[in-house]
Design brief:
Blueprint (H helix, E strand, L loop, with lengths): L6 H15 L8 H6 L26 E9 L3 E2 L1 H8 L3 E7 L4 E2 L1 H9 L3 E4 L15 E5 L4 H13 L5 E5 L3 H13 L5 E5 L3 H8 L7 E3 L6 H7 L4 E4 L6 H11 L3
Parallel strand pairs: 1-3, 2-4, 3-5, 6-7, 6-8, 8-10, 9-10
Length: 252
């Protein structure tokens, strides 16, 4: 006896077989589900959805009270952006001898970051008054002596003092020693061998020396390279020129 199969029954059987052969993670289309009798087993999706690339970036971590130290010798805005890596640090400590470019100053100001030179604080000796600025005289021209005496008289000897030395070596040793011990805010050396003194003095970690001949350069040198040792070649310079150099260098 031949068995006559109904068309709908055939579709139902085929659909059931296909359903059982299908991997569990593959979804079932509505048409096949209908053919299988309208009943389907729950499907567990194994697909991992990647987070959207657009939208807002999570806020950077703010390191309250934390200080980030930078030891590079030249600090630029690009370097700050790379080192800070998107994190908002409260303070940034910069190497004492580092040169800070104008773009770096703009970056720090724009991002409201407090910065300072990473130097050790030296406790003042209450029993010994400290002269903030000092002049070391190797080449003693009349204009030099007059300018130094004028600086001392204007501050009543409380901010400026001077010392007469016999050689460039003495000036280098005296200047680097005073700066490294934190005895002074800055030193001016009057000597004809200015480049030699600057070259050797800059070998000291905390000394930032430069030969200065133009008073208008002093503010930039103090801001960008933390100038604390100004060396002046006094030959041929007038009292007024030397006085103005000392006055500008001694400004806080």
């Amino acid at each position: 006896m031949a068995l006559v199969l109904d068309e709908k029954l055939v579709e139902k059987i085929v659909g059931e077989v296909m359903f059982r052969l299908r991997p569990a993670s593959q979804p079932v289309r509505a048409e096949e589900n209908r053919r299988a009798g309208g009943v389907s087993s729950p499907v567990i999706s194994t697909q991992i959805h990647a987070p959207p690339t657009g939208g807002l970036t999570p806020p950077a971590r703010l390191s309250h009270g934390a200080t980030f130290a930078i030891t590079d010798r030249v600090v630029t805005a690009e370097l700050l952006s790379s080192r800070l890596n998107g994190q908002k640090w409260a303070k940034v400590a910069i190497c004492p001898k580092a040169v800070i470019t104008p773009s770096a100053f703009d970056y720090l100001r724009t991002h409201k970051i407090v910065w300072h030179r990473n130097t050790a604080e030296v406790a003042p000796n209450p029993n010994k008054p400290m002269a903030r600025w000092k002049a070391l005289i190797v080449t003693a021209t009349p204009s030099v002596l007059q300018a130094v005496e004028h600086a001392e008289s204007q501050t009543f000897g409380k901010q400026w003092s001077h010392e007469l030395l016999g050689s460039a070596d003495e000036a280098i040793n005296s200047a680097t020693s005073a700066i490294n011990r934190g005895e002074v805010s800055g030193i001016t050396v009057f000597a004809d061998h200015a480049e030699l003194i600057v070259c050797r003095a800059n070998r000291s970690e905390r000394v930032n020396a430069a030969v200065v001949s133009d008073v208008q350069l002093i503010p930039a040198l103090k801001q960008y390279m933390n100038l604390n040792l100004m060396v002046v070649r006094p030959s041929g310079r007038s009292f007024f020129e030397l006085r103005n150099l000392l006055k500008e260098f001694g400004k806080s």
